[in-house]
Design a protein that fits this description.
heterodimer; A: 149 residues; 5 strands; 36% helix; B: alpha+beta; five-stranded antiparallel beta sheet; five-stranded mixed beta sheet; 12 helices; 14 strands; rod-shaped; disordered N terminus
C-alpha cells in the first residue's frame, strides 16, 4: 500500500483527502503545517507528498525547498495542491522540483486521484501550467449539468 | 564747437543804381574811354578854356595900353596861369569827385558783401575802367551770390533729408520701444511658466537631440539626489546619472520611439538615486519638433511611483491571499459534495441526489465567481503581465473548442470554425487571448437554445486579425446594449433561463482586447441572435511588465 503524506492546514480539506484516498486504497497521514510535515517525514517512509502552499509555521515553498535539499526525501514525488493560481506561483513550485501543481477549487477528487496514480507511475506535468479538470490532460471529474467553467 | 554766428540767409541781390543829376556827367559816362582820358581831356579843355578866357580878358583890358611893362607882363602871366590853374583844379576836383564816386559805391558794395553779407550789383553804366571794374565786381558778387544760394539750397535739401531720416529713426525707436515692452511682458509670462515648471513635484528635464541634459527643474534634487549643475551636459537616462538600471532592450526601444518614430514614449522604469537607493518611476518622454519636423529637444517627465507600486504590490498580495482564503472552504465543499454524489457515504435516493446536485451547482458557481472576481480585480489594477509569444491562432482556437465541445454536443448545437489560411503567427499572450475566445464561445453556447447554430470566422482585415463569433441565440435587448460590457451585466431576458454566469466575462474580454490594441463590438437582436466582432493588430501585443496573470 502506498503511503501519502498530506500537508494541509484546513481540517475540512484534510478530512476530504483522507476519506477519499483511503477509500482508493492509500495509507494517509496529515501534517497541519510545514514544520510538522518535515518532522513526520523523518519518522516514516512515504511514497508521495501532497503539499499545500499557504500554511502556518513554514509555508509550502520553504518546506519544498528543504525537502529538495534533503538527501533522504528529495526523491519523494511532490504534488502541490493549492488555491493560489498565479503563474509565478506555479513556476516557483515547479522549479523547486514539484511533479505537478493543481488548483484545488478547479480539480475534482477523481481527477486528483488520477493525477496521484499518474505521478506514482512516474508521470509529471510537462507544460508548466497548473492542472485543472478542464485542461484535457486527463478525464475530468463529474461535471454538474449545464455549468460552464 | 558752435558757430559764433549763424549766417542769415541771404535774401536777394540788391540793385544799386547811381543817382546822377548832371546831364553832362551822364553823357560823359556813356562815352567809352579809359578813365584817364576822361579826366585829362575835360581837365585840359577846362584849363584851356579858362586860360583862353583869362587871356581874352587880359587882352581886352590891355588893348589900349602900350606894350606891357615887364611887371605887368608877369601879372598878366600869373593871372592867366592862375585862372587856368583854378580852372584845372575846379575841373579835376569836380571830375574826380563825380567820376570817382563810383569807387566809393564799389568799395561799399565789396565791404557789404564781405562784412555784412549783402550782395550788391552796382550798375555804373560807365564805359571805362571803373565800368569794367564794376562789371567784374558785379560778376564776382553775382557768382558769390549764386554760390551762396547753391550752398543754401543744398543745405536746405540736406536738412530736409536729415529731417526725413530723423523721422524714420524716431519711428524705429518707437518700434524698438514697443518691442522692448512686448519682450518684457513676454519675459514675465515666460517667468510664470518657468516658475510653474521649476516647482511641480514631477521631475521635468529638457535635453538636446543627443539626450544631453539642458535643463532640470527643482524636483531633480528630491527625486534623484543630483543637483541641476551636476546633471547638465550629461546624458539623461544613463548609468552616470539616475538611470541605466533596465535592460538594453528597454532603452533601445525608448530611443527608437522618440528619435526615429518621433513619438512620445510612456513607460515605467526602475531608476537609482545618487545615494544608491532604487525607486520606481513612471516616465514620459516626448520629442519637440520644429516646423520642418526635425527634433529640437526632448522633454522628459518623471513621476516617482514607488508608493503606488507598493500599494499595488500590497493589493496583489491581498488578492492572492483572498483567493486562497475564499477558495479553501469552497474546495472542501466541492470535494465532499463529489463524494456524496458518488455514493461514497452511501447510496442516495432520487430526492437526495436532486438536493445535493443543487448544492453542488451553487458551489461551482461560487467558485467561478471567485475566479472571475479575482481576474477582474487584477485587470483593474492595470498590472496584468502581458507575455506575447508567436502564437498559432488555429491551435489556440482548437484547444478552446475541445474544451467546450462536450457542451456543444450535449446541446446538439452546430459549431463551425473557419480560420483563414493567410493568418500568420501573431505575437500575443496566449493565456489572455484564450480567455477571450473561451468567454465568447461559452456565451454563444450558453445563450443559444439547443440545436442552434454558432460560427466562428477568423480572417485578415487591413492590419488586423478579425474574429467574428455569431450565434442564433436569445440575443440582447436593445435597451441593454449600452451595458453589455459592464461588470456583472447579465441580460435580463436570459437570467432566468441560464442561471449561471458571472456577468464578468465580457468585461474581461473588452479589457483584454483593448490591452492588445484591438477593438470589440457587437450587434444583437432579441430572439434572433448575437454577433461579436473583435480585432487584434497583426503586429501583435506589446509586452507588459506587470505583476499578476489572469487565471483561465
Amino acid at each position: 500500500m502506498k503511503k501519502i503524506l498530506i500537508a494541509e492546514d484546513d481540517r475540512f480539506l484534510a478530512n476530504a483527502y483522507r476519506v477519499k484516498l483511503e477509500k482508493e486504497g492509500f495509507e494517509t497521514n496529515i501534517a497541519a503545517n510545514g514544520e510538522e510535515t518535515l518532522k513526520i517525514l523523518e519518522s516514516g517512509k512515504y511514497d508521495l507528498i501532497i503539499l499545500d502552499l499557504i500554511m502556518p509555521k513554514k509555508d509550502g515553498f520553504e518546506t519544498l525547498e528543504e525537502i529538495s535539499k534533503n538527501n533522504d526525501y528529495s526523491k519523494i514525488p511532490v504534488i502541490i495542491a493549492s488555491n493560489l493560481g498565479q503563474q509565478e506561483d506555479v513556476d516557483r513550485g515547479m522549479s523547486l522540483g514539484a511533479k505537478d501543481y493543481i488548483i484545488k477549487s478547479d480539480m475534482s477528487m477523481e481527477g486528483l486521484v488520477n493525477k496521484i496514480r499518474g505521478v506514482l507511475a512516474g508521470k509529471s506535468n510537462g507544460n508548466g501550467v497548473a492542472s485543472t479538470d478542464n485542461d484535457g490532460s486527463q478525464d475530468g471529474g463529474p461535471t454538474p449539468v449545464d455549468t460552464i467553467a | 564747437m558752435e558757430d559764433k554766428k549763424t549766417p542769415e540767409k541771404i535774401q536777394t541781390l540788391v540793385e544799386k543804381n547811381l543817382q546822377e543829376s548832371s546831364p553832362i556827367i551822364k553823357m560823359a559816362r556813356k562815352v567809352k574811354l579809359p578813365l584817364r582820358y576822361k579826366i585829362i581831356i575835360p581837365a585840359t579843355l577846362t584849363t584851356t578854356i579858362f586860360g583862353a578866357v583869362a587871356t581874352l580878358i587880359t587882352y581886352m583890358a590891355t588893348k589900349n595900353a602900350n606894350l606891357l611893362s615887364p611887371t605887368q607882363d608877369i601879372r598878366v602871366v600869373v593871372f592867366i596861369l592862375g585862372t587856368a590853374a583854378l580852372g584845372t583844379l575846379l575841373a579835376i576836383s569836380t571830375i574826380s569827385t563825380r567820376y570817382l564816386k563810383p569807387i566809393t559805391d564799389l568799395t561799399e558794395a565789396a565791404k557789404d558783401m564781405a562784412e555784412k553779407d549783402i550782395y550788391t550789383q552796382v550798375n555804373l553804366e560807365t564805359k571805362d575802367e571803373l565800368g569794367e571794374m564794376a562789371t567784374s565786381l558785379n560778376e564776382l558778387v553775382r557768382k558769390l551770390f549764386d554760390s551762396r544760394k547753391n550752398v543754401e539750397k543744398r543745405v536746405e535739401e540736406q536738412t530736409k533729408e536729415l529731417e526725413k531720416q530723423r523721422k524714420k529713426l524716431e519711428k524705429l525707436l518707437k518700434e524698438a520701444e514697443n518691442q522692448k515692452e512686448y519682450s518684457e511682458r513676454a519675459a514675465e509670462e515666460l517667468l510664470k511658466y518657468k516658475l510653474a515648471t521649476d516647482n511641480v513635484s514631477e521631475l521635468i528635464i529638457i535635453t538636446n537631440p543627443q539626450g544631453k541634459v539642458l535643463y532640470a527643474n527643482n524636483a531633480i534634487k528630491t527625486m534623484t539626489g543630483f543637483t541641476m549643475e551636476e546633471v547638465i551636459g550629461k546624458k539623461a537616462g544613463g548609468k552616470e546619472l539616475w538611470g541605466g538600471q533596465m535592460s538594453n532592450t528597454v532603452y533601445e526601444k525608448l530611443w527608437k520611439t522618440i528619435s526615429q518614430d518621433k513619438k512620445t514614449y510612456l513607460g515605467e522604469v526602475e531608476n537609482i538615486r545618487k545615494n544608491g537607493e532604487r525607486y520606481d518611476s513612471a516616465i514620459s518622454i516626448s520629442p519637440v519638433l520644429n516646423k520642418e519636423g526635425e527634433i529640437m529637444y526632448f522633454v522628459g517627465v518623471e513621476r516617482d511611483i514607488t508608493k503606488e507600486k507598493e500599494i499595488d504590490t500590497m493589493k496583489n498580495e491581498f488578492i492572492s491571499l483572498a483567493s486562497h482564503q475564499l477558495r479553501t472552504p469552497l474546495s472542501a465543499m466541492k470535494w465532499f459534495l463529489e463524494m456524496l454524489l458518488n455514493g461514497d457515504a452511501g447510496k442516495l435516493n432520487e430526492e437526495q441526489i436532486k438536493f445535493v446536485t443543487n448544492i453542488d451547482q451553487s458551489n461551482e458557481r461560487m467558485i467561478e465567481l471567485v475566479s472571475a472576481l479575482l481576474n477582474v480585480s487584477r485587470i483593474e489594477s492595470g498590472r496584468i503581465i502581458v507575455e506575447p509569444k508567436p502564437t498559432d491562432i488555429r491551435k489556440l482556437v482548437d484547444e478552446v473548442v475541445s474544451e467546450v465541445q462536450n457542451k456543444v454536443d450535449a446541446r446538439k448545437q452546430d459549431l463551425q470554425i473557419n480560420i483563414s489560411d493567410e493568418i500568420p503567427e501573431i505575437n500575443l499572450d496566449p493565456k489572455l487571448i484564450r480567455n477571450v475566445y473561451l468567454n465568447l464561445l461559452t456565451n454563444a453556447i450558453k445563450y443559444t437554445p439547443p440545436e442552434g447554430k454558432i460560427t466562428v470566422d477568423i480572417t485578415i482585415k487591413d492590419e488586423d486579425m478579425l474574429t467574428v463569433v455569431k450565434d442564433t441565440g436569445y440575443g440582447i435587448p436593445e435597451t441593454e446594449h449600452e451595458r453589455v460590457f459592464q461588470k456583472f451585466y447579465r441580460g435580463e431576458n436570459v437570467v432566468s433561463l441560464v442561471t449561471d454566469g458571472t456577468g464578468l466575462g465580457l468585461y474581461l474580454v473588452k479589457t483584454i482586447i483593448e490591452t492588445a490594441g484591438g477593438k470589440v463590438w457587437f450587434e444583437s437582436k432579441e430572439n434572433e441572435g448575437t454577433t461579436f466582432w473583435f480585432t487584434i493588430p497583426l503586429s501583435g501585443m506589446e509586452a507588459k511588465k506587470g505583476v499578476v496573470t489572469i487565471e483561465s
